[in-house]
Amino acid sequence: MRRSSSLSGLIAGTLTIATIVFSQGTQAIAKTSVANSSTLALSQTITAKTITQNSPQSDREYFERGLARLGAGDAQGAMEDFSEVIRLNPKLGDAYYNRGLAYSNLGDNKRAIADYDQAIALNPKDSDAYVNRGNARDDLGDRQGALADYNQAIALNPRDANAFYNRGVTRTRLDDKKGAMADYSQAIKLNPKYGSAYVNRGNARDDLGDSKGAIADYNQAISINSNHANAYFNRGITYSRLKNKPAAIADLKKAAELYQQQNNPEAYQQVMGALKRMQ
Fold first, then answer.
1. How many CB atoms lie within 10 A of CB 229?
2. According to the model, what pLDDT value does residue 196 have?
3. I need a labelling partner for 34 at 20 to 30 A (CA). Which of 19, 58, 108, 176 fits?
């Protein structure tokens, strides 16, 4: 996932910890079309030569280097390259889209939205731009705007698992548990390996009183990714609610171990606090 999940605070006394809800899903991948509307023949890994190219001469070369920088995690460099593409070719919608993605990765959601607006103006059927703009709007607290964008993305591409997943997250934040669960279920139908969708559907099921269904979803997430710290955490919380203390402790210990390995000290400390209360 693109953004870290948020771990709710602990309530003193009995173990009453809210389950983790994942944030919006991974942004759609960077666009690869260029000024002449052809598609770049990119290999699965972009070469170091492309990344370190010092003097691009054309919009295509800036575009390629921007893609490489995005892939390498250099959002600032990517933003600068796509800005140059836009200067050279202001009608290239994918350059705005990719710069919006770079701004999103830099945490500048207002500028990201402005670029997604422009990408959509140039290509109104770009469902990915609606998904990413929805993510940025949700980050800024505009839940209804985010829902509108996800709805439009789904209308344009009803097989986009990320659009359903992200709409589910926004519905969760709006306390629409049944709507969220329906969206997570559709995301899973479209992508049966979508581990985070299983975790979030498990959360929704647990909130609706279906603890066994929640555990089944957490089990599935763990079968997909045995290092899924949040799945262990949430399953541990559900086991605790079911008074299965040994299973709860085992899962929380595993979650703590994984959070430590994944350099997530805040989550680690909170899980350790939960374990201390239980033991």
1. 23
2. 94
3. 108
